[in-house]
Amino acid sequence: MDFNLTPEEETFRDEVRSFIQEHLSPEARKDPDLMANWLKSVREKRWVGFNWPPEYGGGGGGIMEQVILKEEMSKAGAPPLGTSMMGLQWVGPAIIEYGTEEQKKQFLPDILDSKYQWCTGYSEPGSGSDLASLQCKAVRDGDEYVVNGQKIWTSGASYSKWIILLTRTDSSAEDKHEGITCLLVEMDSPGVEVRPIKNMAGSSHFAEVFFDNVRVPVKNLLGEEGKGWAVTVSALAHERSGISEVAGLISQLAQVVELAKRTQRNGRPASEHPGIRRRLAKADAMIEGMRLNGQRFLTKQLKGEKLSSETSINKLHRAFLAIEFGELALEIQGSASQYTSRPDDEDDDDLGRWASGALGWPAVVIGGGTPNIQRNIIAERILGLPKD
Amino acid sequence: MNFGLTEEQEVLRSVTRRFLDERAPMATVREIMESPDALDEKLWTGMAELGWLGLIIDEDHGGAGLGWVDLVVLLEETGRGLLPSPLISTSLAAAAISEFGTDAQKQRYLPSLADGSAIGTLAVLEESDIVGPDGIALSGNPDDGGYRLSGTKRFVHDAVAATVFIVPFLAGGKEITLGIVEANAEGVTPKSYATMDETKRMADVAFDNVLVSSDAILTGDGTAALARMLDLAAVAVTAEMVGAMDKDLEITSQYAKDRVQFDQPIGKYQGVKHPLAEMYVDVETSRSLLYYAAWCVQEQPESLPLAAARAKAYASESFVRIGIDGVQLHGAIGFTAEYDIQLYLKRSKWALPAFGDADHHYGRVASLGGY
Ligand SMILES: Cc1cc2nc3c(=O)[nH]c(=O)nc-3n(C[C@H](O)[C@H](O)[C@H](O)COP(=O)(O)OP(=O)(O)OC[C@H]3O[C@@H](n4cnc5c(N)ncnc54)[C@H](O)[C@@H]3O)c2cc1C
Asked: What is the distance between the terminal CA atoms of chain B, rounded to a whole angstrom?
C-alpha cells in the first residue's frame, strides 16, 4: 500500500501544474480568447485524448498520468480539455475500438480539435433503463440504411453535428440484445427533426429527435450490423475510476461550507448548527470514500484488470451527493432560497445559484443509469442474487 | 500509487481466516462469550504463537515488527469471526508503550504483551463519557515524583482480563498525563457489568489512592499522546467493524438466495436486494476509508486525525444500519438467539460508541475541515 506518487509521476504532475500556471494566469483568464488559446495549447501538448493512440492524434498517456492530468485540471478549475464532450468521452473511444480505418481518420482528429459536437441517440420513449428494447428502425437499401423512428432525452441534439445512433435492424432475434445496429448519422441529413424539451430547471438541454426516412451511407455503420449492443457496452465501459470528478465534488462541498459560514440561521452561522455540520461532514467523508474507492479501482486497472460493476458504488454516492448538496444549500438559505433573481441587482451571488443545483440533479441521478439500476447491478453481478 | 495489499498481507489474511475457522468457529465463539471472563487461554496462547499479540511491537521487544496496515488485516478477520479476545485492547496498550514509553518501560512491558502473559488496555472514559481531553478529570496528586490517582475510569474494554492499564489523568489537576498502572497495584478494583455484546467485555475501574510512580509515566505531551491513542483506537475498532459488516452482508446475501417465499428466493425482490446492494456500497467505502487511515498511521501521521475520524464516523453509521437490516432481512429467524446474525447486530451496538460514535467523529471532521 502506498498512496505516494513515484518520482516520474511527480515530475509529470509538476509539468501539468506549471503549464496551468503559465496558461491560466489571472491575466490569461481575463483574455476574451482564453478558450481558443487554451484549446490550442492543450492540443499541442497532446493532452486532449491523452489516452488515445498516438497514430490518431492521441497522447498515448498511461492510466496514472491521465488521472494526474485530470485531477490537476479539475483542482485548478481549468477549462475542459476540448469541447466535444461526448466525442471525447465515448464516441471517440468506441470508434477507436470498432471503427474502420476510414472512420478513424474522418472523425478522431475532428473530435480532438473540438470542431463540433456529438450527441447520443440511445433512449427512446419506450426504452429507458431497458435500453435493449429499442425500436428505432434501420433497413438496408443498397449502400444505405433507411432510418425511421424516434429518440428522446438526446442531450445537445440541437447543436450537434453528428449523432451516435442505436437502431434495430432485426426484430426477429429472440434475444433483444441481438439485431441492434450502431450508426453514425449527420444531424442535418434530410428527415431528421429536433424538438427541444424544456426541463424543470428551465433550460432546453435535451430534445426529441425524429427520423423520417433518413438515409445513412453504409460506410457510417459502426461495428457490425446487428452487433451494436457490444459497441454500446464497450462505450459505457470506458467510464473511468471516477477519480477526476472527485476534485469537482470537493470544490462543490467547499462552496456549500462557505455558504453555511456566511449565512445566519437563528442568530448564528448555519455552519454552527449540529444538524448542518453533520450533513456537511457526512458529505465530506463520502467524497473522501469515493476518492479512495477510485484509487482502489485504479490500482486494479494498473494491474491490468478490467473494471466491472464496482464502479456502481461511486455512481450511487454521486447520485446521493447531487441531491444532498442542493438540499443542504436550500436549507441553509432558508426563505431566501426562494428568490432566484432580481433584475436590478447583479451583486448577490447567492441569488438563484443554489436553486439550479437543487433543480438540476436529475442530469446526474437519472442521466447515467438510475440508482435502482445501479443497485440491481451490484446485487446481481457482485452479490450474485437472482435477476429480477 | 498502490492501493493493494502485499503478498505477505494476503497470506496473513488467509492464515488468520484459516486459524479462526479451525480454532474459533461460531460454536466456540459462543462458548467463550458465555464463560465468566470471555477469555480462552489456549486460544490466546495460540494467537501469541502466531505473532498476533506482538504484531506491531518491534522485533527487539519480542514482536513481529509489522505495521498498522498488517494489524488492520488481522483485525478485519477477528471482526468477521466476532472473536472474543482482548486483541484490540492489548495492541493499543502496546502501541502506547511503543510510541511513548521509555526504554525501561518498553523492556518491562512489550515482551510480555507480545507473548500474551500480559494483557493491556486503555482506560480513558470517565463519568462524562466525553471522548477526548475534555473528558479527562481523574486527578493525580503529586507524591514523591509520581502521582496518586483517586477516581473511576468507566467503560474500560477488557478491564477484567487486563493486567496493565494505560491511564490518562490530570497531573496535579492540570496537565494530561498518561500513566501505566498494573492491575494488581494496591487500590485498583474493576467493577464488571454484563454487556449487550457478550463477545466484548467492559468494566468500570475504581482507583483508590493508586500510585503511579515516576518511572510509570509515559513521555511526551500527554494531550497529544492521548489524541494519537484515540485515533489509533478508532482505526482498530473500524477494522473490526469492517470485517464484521462484510460477514453480516455475506450471511444475509446467502440467506436471501436460499430462503424461498412466494415461490421465489427472496433475493429476487428488490425490497431485499437493494438494501443488500446498499450494504455492499457502505462496506466497501468504509474499507477504503479504513485502509487509508491505517496507512496514514505510520506514513503520514499528520493526516491521521481526519482520516481516522472519517473512517470511524462513516463505518459506525453504516454498521448500525447493516446490523439492523441484517436481522430484518432474515425475518423471525434473525431474532432468535440461536441464529448468528443477531450477534453482528450486537457487535454494531458495541462498536458505535467505542472510542467515539458517528456524531462525535463527524463533529471532528467538521472541525478539522475548518467549519
Ligand atoms: C438530463 C438527462 C440527460 C440525458 N441525456 C441522454 C442522452 O444524451 N442520450 C440518451 O440516449 N439518453 C439520455 N438520457 C436518458 C437516460 O439515459 C434515461 O432517462 C435513463 O436511462 C432512464 O430511463 P427513463 O427515463 O426512461 O426511466 P425508466 O427506465 O422508465 O425508469 C423510471 C423509474 O423506474 C425505475 N426502474 C426502471 N427499471 C427498473 C428496474 N428494473 N428495477 C427497479 N427500478 C426500475 C428507475 O430507476 C426510475 O426511477 C438523459 C436523461 C437525463 C435526465
From this structure: 30
